């Protein structure tokens, strides 16, 4: 049994209702952004989603750059299947755009103890770049915690805006650390037994999936140095072990200092694409490397090794480039464009290619 996964930046999916944010960004009827244009964009997006995974469509689909929940519900309706459920929380993002997760309710249900939450990261203004969705697999109740991301833009310059993404990376890294370790007070109250060590490793091996538009490449500092996501497994392979040093008065578990000093590392599934010339998810003509690998899947140790019922198949990860949304000459994503005068029909899809992946159920 496999779970089909995808992520896609939908490129400014705004509705046709007048709002302060939409007006500020030019998505108004006066600028040509009409209900007919919105309907055309939704139809085009649905066309590509229906092609994903050889027409079977994803079981988990994370998206970003959507204005609100009603738009996502309209998109799901256009897919015309009953199995999709939407996880969405409206954003405080100053740009007025959200991230969402569509999931197959025949495979998943939301964890009743921990509902989805929008995680506000404060730089100089409130922004919701991280959406946490705790899921349970219906088949075997395996846990899967999904973080859908849309990190701060590079529009002010890659290096000028880098501190904003580092802030988000630090925040997300802390969240993951909290998921993979018990808190200090709980740990100090635990007995020094083999059962405690097993419990520590159950936390350490939880299934966590990050997907999103990170607006940085896999080799950038925010991801490598602050989120601790790389192509290596040297750190990833380390389980929680007893500290056998002479200074440890515990026999079966690590000292508190050793345990809380552990850093949770992630595996980034997108590194193989960096070795392929002119390959990425976003085209930026102003850069020497014009194709950027900004959309990524990253996974925890447990999901990489298949330690708790689920295993991400990194070799099956793809940049989804159907001919419909690829330019003929250089295979760039065909962005959605519309005529402000309404003379020519709108065309295109998004300025990002989607990415797809597979999770095996063990």
Description of the structure:
The longest helix is centred in the middle third of the chain and has 19 residues, at 162-180. This protein is elongated. Helix 2 (35-51) packs across helix 3 (69-79). A hairpin with a 5-residue loop joins strand 7 (126-137) and strand 8 (143-150). The strands form three sheets. Strands 5, 6, 7, 8, 9, 10, 11 and 14 form an eight-stranded mixed beta sheet that branches. A six-stranded mixed beta sheet has the order 3-4-2-1-16-15. A two-stranded antiparallel ribbon has the order 12-13. It has helices at 20-25, 35-51, 69-79, 162-180, 184-188, 194-204, 221-226, 256-260, 301-305; strands at residues 2-13, 60-66, 84-87, 98-104, 108-110, 117-122, 126-137, 143-150, 208-213, 229-230, 266-268, 282-283, 291-292, 295-299, 310-319, 355-361. It has nine helices and 16 strands. The protein is an alpha+beta fold and 362 residues long.
């Amino acid at each position: 049994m496999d779970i089909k996964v995808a992520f896609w930046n939908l490129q400014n999916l705004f509705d046709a209702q007048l709002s302060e944010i939409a007006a500020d960004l030019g998505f108004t009827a006066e600028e040509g952004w009409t209900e007919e244009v919105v309907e055309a964009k939704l139809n085009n997006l649905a066309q590509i989603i229906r092609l994903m995974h050889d027409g079977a469509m994803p079981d988990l689909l994370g998206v970003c750059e959507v204005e609100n929940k009603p738009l996502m519900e309209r998109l799901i309706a256009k897919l015309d299947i009953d199995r999709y459920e939407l996880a969405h929380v409206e954003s405080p993002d100053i740009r007025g755009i959200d991230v969402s997760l569509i999931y197959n309710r025949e495979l998943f249900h939301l964890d009743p103890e921990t509902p989805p939450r929008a995680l506000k990261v404060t730089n100089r203004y409130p922004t919701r770049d991280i959406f946490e969705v705790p899921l349970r697999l219906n088949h075997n109740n395996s846990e899967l915690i999904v973080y859908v991301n849309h990190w701060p833009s590079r529009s002010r310059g890659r290096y000028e805006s880098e501190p904003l993404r580092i802030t988000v990376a630090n925040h997300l890294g802390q969240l993951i650390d909290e998921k993979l370790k018990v808190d200090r007070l709980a740990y100090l109250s635990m007995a020094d037994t083999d059962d405690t060590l097993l419990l520590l490793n159950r936390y350490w091996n939880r299934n966590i999936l990050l997907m999103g538009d990170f607006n940085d490449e896999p080799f950038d500092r925010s991801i490598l140095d602050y989120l601790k996501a790389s192509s290596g497994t040297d750190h990833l392979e380390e389980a929680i072990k007893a500290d056998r040093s002479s200074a440890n008065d515990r026999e079966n578990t690590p000292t508190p200092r050793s345990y809380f000093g552990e850093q949770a590392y992630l595996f980034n599934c997108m590194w193989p694409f960096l070795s392929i010339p002119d390959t990425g998810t976003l085209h930026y003509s102003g850069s020497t490397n014009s194709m950027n690998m900004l959309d990524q899947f990253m996974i925890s140790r447990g999901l990489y090794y298949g330690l708790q019922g689920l295993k991400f198949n990194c070799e099956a990860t793809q940049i989804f480039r159907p001919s419909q949304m690829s330019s003929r000459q250089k295979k760039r994503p065909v962005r959605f464009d519309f005529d402000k005068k309404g003379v020519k029909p709108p065309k295109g899809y998004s300025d990002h290619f989607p990415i797809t992946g597979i999770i095996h159920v063990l």
